[in-house]
From TrEMBL:
Pathway: Ketone degradation; acetoin degradation. Pfam families: Hist_deacetyl. Residues 33-327 form the Histone deacetylase domain. The lineage of its organism: Bacteria, Bacillati, Actinomycetota, Actinomycetes, Micromonosporales. This is Acetoin utilization protein AcuC. Keywords: Acetoin catabolism.
Length: 405
């Protein structure tokens, strides 16, 4: 490891996986809003009831809020002042706050800083060798911009964590975002920084918020190739999504040679999600998580920081998908045929009466796929893959037409 850091160094208190959690993270509550904290509560409860958090080598630790020094590495000081002031000013407007997407709520700064602190804690633990992997399921608020809230996100916790990694000496950080929405805030913050590779696999911006993430967004001057955008058509399901991911993401990561992988694992690519139009299953999302863990093992000595993100099927999808994420990060993946515990089903109905509570950890989907080939008559997904490969592969010395690259 270059850069004079202690990344990967074994320590006496090293754990295999750090899960950063405290019930106080549920205070990021936008009220009557799609981003309901019950989804995170139920995810952690399901993981706990299935014994994932009690596995050997797993440490669950509470975060501290990110301080102003950490937050102002990516956000403007005047924006922090606005976030603090808005709940106390009935006439407040501006900075993207007080909208239907980002309503103002009491304790907004404190709740947002705590989520940023959770992902910051996860990243520090992995980089400094205290943990091999770390998960911050409440994190993944990837739309927040340096000077405004956007897309349900007040502070951009993945960007805050990546900035800390750079300050600690990281020279090559890869960020892979599989939320159905483009990871625009993280891309924007590091668009001119060649040390950070941002890769986003999302529904086409022609059909979905935030309207960015086209293949020709490839990085700013001096950082050409540092942004990779794979924009998929509405209706893309497991097999096509996984084939597209496999045709782009491993190649650019291998060319970049990251020292650490940071992932945003939004669950809103699921076919049941009410806010988007991809058609993945829980099984497909689980396969994507396993692929990212394998890439971290191959390229980063296992160093992987995973966050949550979007996901608005609050009972039906998010708890299962993020429990699979926690299991993938902590050791043996959960068998998809596993039953959800009766205790968890009772809790889910208590929190969300009338919900369709899933009985098993699977959607019974077949996620096997054939690797992408630039031959035959391309469909819409193949055309999206080729657009991304043509835009960015040559910037990494890769041949967009060679399936081996």
């Amino acid at each position: 490891m270059s850069g004079g850091t202690s990344a990967g160094r074994a320590t006496a208190d090293r754990c295999e996986t750090l899960v950063v959690w405290d019930d106080a993270l549920l205070s990021y509550d936008l009220g009557d809003h799609p981003l309901d904290p019950v989804r995170v509560e139920l995810a952690m409860a399901l993981a706990r009831d299935l014994g994932v958090l009690d596995r050997p080598g797993v440490t669950v630790a509470a975060p501290k809020p990110a301080d102003d020094a950490a937050l102002t590495r990516v956000h403007r000081a005047d924006y922090l002042h606005a976030v603090r002031a808005a709940p106390h000013d009935p006439f407040f407007s501006g900075y993207g706050l007080g909208t239907s997407d980002n309503p103002v709520f009491e304790g907004m700064h404190e709740a947002s800083a705590l989520i940023a602190g959770a992902t910051l804690t996860a990243a520090e633990a992995v980089w400094l060798g205290r943990a091999r992997r770390a998960v911050s399921v409440a994190g993944g608020l990837h739309h927040a911009m340096p000077g405004r809230a956007a897309g349900f996100c007040v502070y951009n916790d993945p960007a805050v964590a990546i900035a800390r990694l750079l300050d600690l000496g990281a020279e090559r950080v890869a960020y892979v975002d599989i939320d159905v929405h483009h990871g625009d805030g993280v891309q924007e913050i590091f668009y001119r920084d060649p040390r950070v590779l941002t890769v986003s696999v999302h529904e086409t911006p022609l059909a979905l918020f935030p309207g960015t993430g086209f293949p020709d967004e490839t990085g700013g001057p001096g950082a050409e190739g540092s942004a990779v955008n794979l924009a998929l058509p509405p209706g893309t399901g497991d097999v096509a999504w996984l084939r597209a991911f496999d045709a782009v993401v491993p190649s650019v990561l291998r060319a970049f040679r990251p020292q650490i992988l940071v992932s945003q694992c939004g669950a809103d690519s699921h076919r049941a999600d009410p806010l988007a139009d991809l058609r993945l299953s829980v099984d497909g999302q689980r396969a994507a998580q396993l692929a990212m863990r394998a890439l971290a093992d191959e390229l980063c000595d296992g160093r992987w920081v995973a966050t949550g993100g979007g996901g608005y099927a609050l009972v039906e999808v998010v708890p299962r998908t993020w429990t699979h994420l926690l299991a993938t990060a902590t050791g043996e993946p959960i068998d998809p045929a596993t039953l959800t515990p009766a205790s968890w089903r009772t809790l889910a109905l208590t929190r969300r009466p009338g919900s369709d509570v899933p009985i098993r950890m699977t959607d019974d989907a077949d996620v096997r796929f054939e690797p992408w080939q630039p031959t035959g008559e391309p469909d819409a997904v193949d055309r999206a893959v080729m657009a991304t490969r043509r835009a960015v592969f040559p910037l990494h010395g890769l041949d967009p037409h060679d399936p081996r690259d």
